[in-house]
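INSTRUCTION: Work out how this chain folds

Fields: amino acid sequence; protein backbone structure tokens

Chain under study, with its fold:
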Amino acid sequence: MDPAIPAGFALVRRIGPFTADTLPRGLLGEHRLKPDRWGHLTLEAGAVRLVWDDGSSRSEDLAAPAQALIPPEVPHHLEFTDDFVLRIDFLQQAG
């Protein structure tokens, strides 16, 4: 999957790149983005699983190169079993 960044959104913050050793542990537990923020995960190497904690039982197995778009306020977390390199861009509606 190669999601597009929603039109009219701009980068407000970038974190990473992270590896299995440097990933903030908070990303491994359920969390959500602010109401006005989208996340754009870019997986540069390795593999991770993006799990949606919204009661849908959905997950996405991402293998590099891959991207995932994370909407505001949707609970989710990351899982991994091997090393990876990823970064996350935070986007907000421009205006």
